[in-house]
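Encode chain A's predicted structure.
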Amino acid sequence: MAGHHFVRSEHADCAVEVDTNAYSVPWRLIGEIVEVTISGGQVRVFHAGQLVASHAESHGRHRRLTDPAHFVGVSGFGMPVKQAAQADPPAPKLPELLRPLSEYERLIGGQW
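Encoded structure for chain A:
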């Protein structure tokens, strides 16, 4: 694609979509209308006439191109991902018929 111009709205995932590919845009522009131009192998994103993002044009499909600078200031950005602590597995529940024999003896009034 050479010399194309689009108007897009930035998605909540901090990206604009062009030809099935997602290109990151600064998070502060979520929901804002941006202009996208493609020329010379570059995807450029403008907001209010100012260049806010530039990416090499992806020739694949369904790819996500991101610039880490677009996420600075997002809560948790740059923090290591924590693994959820694994709880001990619950004790297996015994079926009703696997009660201790003493309970059955008590019910019938004596031992076998």
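The longest strand covers residues 33-39.
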